[in-house]
Amino acid sequence: MDRKPMRLLVITGLSGAGKTQALQSLEDQGYFCIDNLPPTFIVKFVELCAQSQGKVSKAAIVCDLRGGEFFTSLTEALRDLEGEGFHYEMLFLEASDETLVRRYKESRRRHPMSPQGRLLEGIYEERKQLEELRGQAHNIIDTSNMLSQQLRRKIIELYGEEQGLGQLAVSVISFGFKYGVPLDADLVIDVRFLPNPFYVEDLRPLTGEHLLVQKYIFDNPVAQEFMKRYLNLLEYILPYYVKEGKSHLVIGIGCTGGQHRSVAIAERVGSFLKEQHFTASVKHRDASRNRKGEKSQ
């Protein structure tokens, strides 16, 4: 039976070396991820993915000592995968003894190989038992001197898609400062310096999605110059977020009540981002509040 090729990554290595962080980075890259999958289930999992009609095109599995009967069953499962004609890659994560001790001290967790004994003894034993498996790995990453962000960049370099702009999902949120700044906003811009349609009686009940409101705002030379400069700024900085490995960015655009100016600007920014091939969405958090009778300025 013909199977659609699927990229399968098996992640293993020393406890405390960063397997969970690696898996989270892969999940942000669109991988279907499973943590702590017992090795005996690997072949069945891959078969189910192969039957998904392309819905699962890349998957990552963390297999480690938590699965029990680890070493023998993992070797057998990988051998069975090859026998069934499935291709896989293995990533092995390791770190120095000093680093692993420090991380376990900070997390106050027990090492799986020394639940009742000394931490170092468990690290030594695990390293010894993993030696043969390490030799089979396609890639080995030593995370001893890596910050979380550095590990993320390395994972993206090895297993991510080509660094395209579409990898960064951008949420543009208009809001009113009177209701508070969105807690999850990464970038916030205050557009209260622009002409306010609230003071035009015919425009007051409308929102910034209406063409009349947009015309009123963008006919102003200050608004035109602002949009030019702000979009140029976004065009310049967003590729650097992509390069850094960021998967989601929230842009908050605020005016007083979140009904007119911020909405109009957010619409323009959202359209621009889509033209630049970013994955962008626009949400108007507070626009409906003022249309229900609350006063905006």
The number of helical segments is 10
Q: Portion of residues in helices?
A: 40-55%
Tally the beta strands. 9
Mean of residue pLDDT?
88
Q: How would you name the CATH homologous superfamily of the largest domain? A: P-loop containing nucleotide triphosphate hydrolases
Shape: elongated
**Gyration radius from CA atoms, angstroms:** 26 Å
Enumerate the spans where pLDDT stays under 50 for 5 or more consecutive residues.
none
Main beta-sheet annotation: 5 strands, parallel
Topology:
Elements: E1 7-13, H1 19-28, E2 32-35, H2 42-50, E3 58-62, H3 70-83, E4 89-94, H4 97-107, H5 119-135, E5 139-142, H6 148-159, E6 169-176, E7 187-190, H7 211-218, H8 221-244, E8 248-255, H9 261-275, E9 279-284, H10 287-291
Parallel strand pairs: 1-3, 1-4, 2-3, 4-5, 6-8, 6-9, 7-8
Helix pairs in contact: 1-6, 4-5
Account of the 3D structure:
This protein has two domains: 7-159, Rossmann fold; 165-291, no CATH class. The chain has ten helices and nine strands. The protein has helices spanning 19-28, 42-50, 70-83, 97-107, 119-135, 148-159, 211-218, 221-244, 261-275, 287-291; strands at 7-13, 32-35, 58-62, 89-94, 139-142, 169-176, 187-190, 248-255, 279-284. The strands form two sheets. The chain has a five-stranded parallel β-sheet, with helices on both faces. Strand 2, helix 2 and strand 3 (58-62) form a beta-alpha-beta unit. Helix 1 (19-28) packs across helix 6.
